[in-house]
Amino acid sequence: MRRWLLRLLWCVLALVVLASLAIWLLLRGSLAELDGERALPGLSAAVSVERDARGVVTITAGNQTDAMRALGRVHAQERYFEMDLMRRSAAGELSALFGPAAIEADKRMRVHRLRARTDAHLAQALGSQPAVVQAYVAGVNEGLAALPVRPWAYLLLRQAPRPWQASDSVLAGLAMYADLQDPANQNELALARIRAAVPPALYTLLAHDGSQWDAPLLGEPRGNAALPDATQLDLRTLAAVPATGAADADAVGSNNFAVDGTLTRDGRAIVADDMHLGLRAPALWFRVRLRYPDPGAPGGRVDISGFSLPGVPAVIVGSNGHVAWGFTNSYIDTADFRREPADAAVTVHEERIDVAGQAPVRFPVRESAWGPIVHTHADGSGDALRWVAQLPGAVRMDFADMARAGTLQQALQVADHAGIPAQNLVIADRSGRIAWRLVGARPDRGLGCLPQGFNDNLDTPDCAPWGIRSDAAPALIDPLEHRLWTANSRVVDEQRLATVGNGGYDLGARGQQIRDLLVARDRFDEHALLAIQLDDRAVFLQRWWALLQEVTANSSDPALQRLHAANAHWDGRASVGSVSYRITRGFRGKVLDAVEGALLAPAKAQLGDDFLPPRLAQLEGVVWPMLEQRPANLLPPGVASWDDLLATAARELEADLSQQGPLQERTWGERNTAAICQPVARALPAFAQRWLCMPADPLPGDRDMPRVQGPNFGASQRMVVSPGNEADGIVHMPGGQSGHPLSPYWGAGHEDWVHGRPTPFLPGPAQHTMTLVPAR
Prior knowledge:
Elements: H1 2-28, E1 36-39, E2 47-51, E3 57-60, H2 64-91, H3 95-98, H4 103-110, H5 114-120, H6 122-126, H7 130-146, H8 152-157, H9 166-180, H10 186-197, H11 200-206, E4 255-259, E5 270-274, E6 276-278, E7 286-293, E8 301-308, E9 315-319, E10 323-329, E11 335-340, E12 347-355, E13 358-367, E14 373-376, E15 382-387, H12 408-415, E16 423-429, E17 434-439, E18 442-444, E19 454-455, E20 467-469, E21 475-477, E22 483-486, H13 494-500, H14 509-519, H15 526-533, H16 542-552, H17 558-566, H18 579-607, H19 620-629, H20 642-658, H21 668-671, H22 686-689, E23 709-710, E24 713-715, E25 718-721, E26 730-732, H23 750-755, E27 759-760, E28 768-773
Parallel strand pairs: 1-28, 3-7, 11-19
Antiparallel strand pairs: 2-3, 2-28, 4-5, 4-22, 5-25, 6-24, 7-8, 8-9, 9-10, 10-16, 11-15, 12-13, 14-15, 16-17, 17-21, 18-20, 23-24, 25-26, 26-27
């Protein structure tokens, strides 16, 4: 019996080994090809594709079309599944991959009908680049077909990839609109409903759009809010229902800044850019260098390095040896509601949502001349939403012309036709000049039709349906201060703000910290700008630490005594080992939650189920004056004094942290630990997820400082580069180049990003070379 059991055990082990080997071989079948010679139909001449130690790709071709055909092939073999997710997320087609769990997400995007709109206006989207885009699309499909096995994620989902189309490249660009803007325009709607339900003085506080932390490029800081007295507003007398604001991300925003040639040793201008987005494995971006002859480029040749977006045939951020540029999200107002009466003329579009594993879902979209109707009221009227991403020209491939810009002025001319989400462009050229410009699609509302917020008065004439434009935008060229900075906070002055609108600007603390570091010295190099990007000093929270120490000092409450002792030493940084940073940040969060809840409670009482939580990004400019002045009329109902409110917040924080263990061990790194995973990791058992995630490193940095960093949000790239001096440039990217966990480039370079170690902007020596040749 033992002999037979032993034989059975060996058979089982052999089957397990064989199954594991089969799975391993199957997975390896979708690895990108790295070496050798391969035919690529449509090429006019041979193309070289090199990869360095981190998987950074250098493509050397005889012309732009060949280079983009090769780029498409590379993108497909390294990132096809991620490309597919982008086009599907924009079009509302994720359910066809993931099943019923994605239906609601698909409906939220399908209401905009972005695929139908893209197909209807494809020629305009391709702009001056139709042949380039078509070559890229052909390269994508050839690269996908050349893999012996379909990309591994499709095996897991038991799905087959769908071929790429030119419209899919446009949808990949529209996916960035959905990521950077609010497709539902919910914050504007939330504030509009609140405005109709609360006293004017209360709405003024909630809608205050600045603070003492403002650091605009144009105009003056808005400053903190002026508080109303008891005759204007008394929260203690208003009906109230407990309410909270919109969940605030742990981190938000991007940074870019630049210095001109007067501030460097040799007259070079330098641009620093770090675009902060949700993080995943692999990275959102794909590093690439493209080299090819081009009679329209300076010297007759393009040599551009930087970050491409798989799915789009262009370098999005980088340097071409003559100009270098980077972006931050501008947060201008890019959408408007209009109330449509019950008898308004509408067209009904029957959208079909395919769902893996079940029958398709029919989803009717009612659309007026203004846009899709996203909410319907009891009286039959509806709220129609007009959003720039819905309109022809929102995505145009003309931005690829930045590859051949030779001067600051030429780059700005390209930017004037940029079909991208509205961004703060910071740019430098080889002569040492720098500039900022608002670029990308913005509403062209016309004279006398400024950003209107939400118009719910049916008797008031509305503006005509507006189009979009990207030219004649606000700009600051050759600044007198020789420095530029943007960080998602307000950049423009009162006059320009009235035209572009406020789409939810971030608190200005991060931008102010960058500005102050730029002003503090008069000589810079690339490493000095990288140091600003990595600055995790908690300047913004210094006063909150001092306030908490006041609250807990000399208290007889054991909980507050414990908190006081644990928080006694102020580290002054969001470092991984800091206890005081974590405590101080938590205390501020508790206080803001209490005040925000009290300010929103009257609206919740009036609106009931129609209440939507707004995101109050500038609440600091309201709360801090309250804490300085301690007005009794603005106390939350049932709270005896501001001292009591602060002590209660401190006690709640102590209780929360103590549940996790000794206070002295509650470090920021414990709270701020990386959770950067491949999108399908959540579908796997916990023990298997680690194979699809980056290491769970404790991370320095936080939201209101230059080094923005949360567990799965932060710098999707960092770049510091001077045009013409790319060899001195510095770059970081999390998550690695390849989307395949068996690739040598899965996670390559990630640890340098975690620790802020400088790595070269340009690709290193080639470790793998593939030659693509015309098909015979």
